[in-house]
């Protein structure tokens, strides 16, 4: 029996771009699926197909057991959607926006008012509730859009990058609301670029790239695959990169990666803070000077490096020099060293292989 969100072989092209290239999904009722992927991976396109906003070229899908292509109107009545771009009415106040949504969904005026008040409070919009949305900041709009998606609790919800642009406190507030919804039986598909967020909220994670699911599994399975925490060292001078890489590989549980221009060497480890002390002693013992050392959680890039052997690529044309993205111009791997990923720029990266089932 298919899950509350089900898709088989979804393909959607825009000109030459295969935004979805054969996506299968199956989200059991009452669970959260995190659709994780870099810019341009196809996340929003998948959400738009599943929420009936666009039609796929081929494939089939159902939501809450209703066929998305045959009965779009019925699907729309069973879902809630919070999009990547806010869909609030600029000329209504925050409060009016929320009450209007409630009434559209046939709530009584009294219930709609109560729910609006509650959500405005939760998303820290109470003070601005009676100003028109046009005067809101970007983050405020984002929160209003999320609140609007939460006025009613439909059985199936879609949230496209719900926390992008939220400050930590509001992100936390949203995480709590999401957890309550799911505890109440809602099925949720959320897209994110943050592994940490998928880790926190999702029962299952699908990693997408170039319109394809390249890995799926629980967060634990994915982390086991990705190697959990990382030790990251920035050495003082370029000639210390190679010896530091050798030291780190000695402590590591997987592929190390080297970013030459920042003199940064990273390796997945297990062992936490105690291990960090050992690494420092070893580096010190070999006279390798360091500017920085840290233990950090895997990022989306780490996941991509583990799964595909190269860093996450962004949209075509945006690749070179993208700030904060490992694997862009200027990043080279240690050549010829087994166990070291070549994080050379995307231009040289291979197509990701067939989908891998992740298991711990
Ligand atoms: N309406 C459209 N017309 C043309 N190309 C499109 C359209 N919508 C999406 N695309 C292309 O399809 C690909 C997937 O886009 P999509 O918006 O699904 O990515 P995404 O994973 O949501 O990315 P982001 O993290 O940036 O939101 C991209 O290459 C994008 O440029
Ligand atoms: Mg998107």
Give an overview in words.
With 360 residues, the chain is α/β, with parallel strands linked by helices. It has helices spanning 43-50, 72-78, 94-104, 109-122, 138-149, 168-183, 195-201, 219-226, 241-251, 272-285, 300-308; strands spanning 5-14, 17-27, 32-36, 58-63, 66-67, 79-82, 156-160, 187-192, 204-209, 212-218, 230-235, 256-259, 264-268, 290-296, 340-341, 356-357. The strands form three sheets. Strands 6-7-8-3-9-10-16 form a seven-stranded mixed sheet, with helices on both faces. A five-stranded mixed sheet has the order 14-11-13-12-15, with helices on one face. Helix 3 (94-104) packs parallel to helix 5 (138-149) and helix 9 (241-251) runs antiparallel to helix 10 (272-285). The longest helix has 16 residues, at 168-183. It is globular. The protein binds adenosine-5'-triphosphate (ATP) and magnesium ion (MG). Residues 43-44, 84, 160 line the site of magnesium ion. Adenosine-5'-triphosphate is lined by residues 14, 17, 19, 37, 39-45, 84, 193, 315. Keywords: Antibiotic resistance, ATP-binding, Cell membrane, Membrane, Nucleotide-binding, Translocase, Transport. Residues 5-235 form the ABC transporter domain. It is found in: Cell membrane. InterPro entries: AAA+_ATPase (IPR003593), ABC_transporter-like_ATP-bd (IPR003439), ABC_transporter-like_CS (IPR017871), ABC_transporter_ATP-binding (IPR050763), DrrA (IPR005894), DrrA1/2-like_C (IPR025302), P-loop_NTPase (IPR027417).
């Amino acid at each position: 029996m298919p899950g509350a969100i089900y898709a088989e072989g979804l393909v959607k092209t825009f000109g030459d771009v295969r935004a979805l290239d054969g996506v299968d999904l199956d989200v059991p009722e009452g669970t959260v699926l995190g659709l994780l992927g870099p810019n341009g991976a196809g996340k929003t396109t998948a959400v738009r197909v599943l929420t009936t906003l666009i039609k796929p070229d081929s494939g089939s899908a159902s939501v809450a057991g209703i066929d998305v292509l045959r009965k779009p109107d019925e699907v729309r009545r069973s879902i809630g959607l919070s999009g990547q771009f806010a869909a609030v009415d600029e000329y209504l106040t925050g409060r009016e926006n929320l009450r209007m949504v409630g009434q559209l969904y046939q709530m009584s005026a009294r219930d709609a008012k109560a729910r609006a008040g509650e959500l405005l409070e939760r998303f820290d919009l109470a003070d601005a509730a009676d100003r028109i949305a046009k005067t809101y900041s970007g983050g405020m709009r984002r929160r209003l859009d999320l609140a609007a998606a939460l006025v009613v609790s439909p059985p199936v919800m879609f949230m496209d990058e719900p926390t992008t642009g939220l400050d930590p406190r509001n992100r936390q507030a949203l995480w709590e609301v999401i957890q309550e919804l799911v505890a109440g039986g809602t099925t949720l598909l959320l897209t994110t670029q943050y592994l940490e967020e998928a880790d926190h909220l999702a029962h299952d994670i699908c990693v997408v790239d170039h319109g394809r699911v390249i890995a799926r599994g629980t967060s634990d399975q994915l982390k086991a695959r990705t190697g959990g925490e990382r030790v990251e060292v920035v050495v003082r001078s370029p000639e210390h990169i190679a010896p530091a890489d050798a030291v780190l590989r000695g402590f590591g549980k997987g592929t190390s990666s080297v970013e030459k221009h920042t003199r940064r060497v990273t390796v997945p480890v297990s062992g936490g803070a105690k291990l960090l002390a050992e690494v420092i002693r070893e580096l010190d013992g070999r006279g390798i000077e360091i500017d920085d050392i840290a233990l950090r959680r895997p990022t989306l890039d780490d996941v991509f490096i583990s799964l595909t052997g190269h860093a996450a690529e962004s949209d075509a044309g945006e690749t070179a020099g993208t700030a904060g993205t490992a694997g862009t111009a200027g990043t080279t791997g240690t050549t010829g060293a087994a166990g070291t990923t070549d994080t050379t720029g995307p231009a040289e990266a291979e197509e990701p292989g067939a989908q891998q089932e992740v298991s711990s």
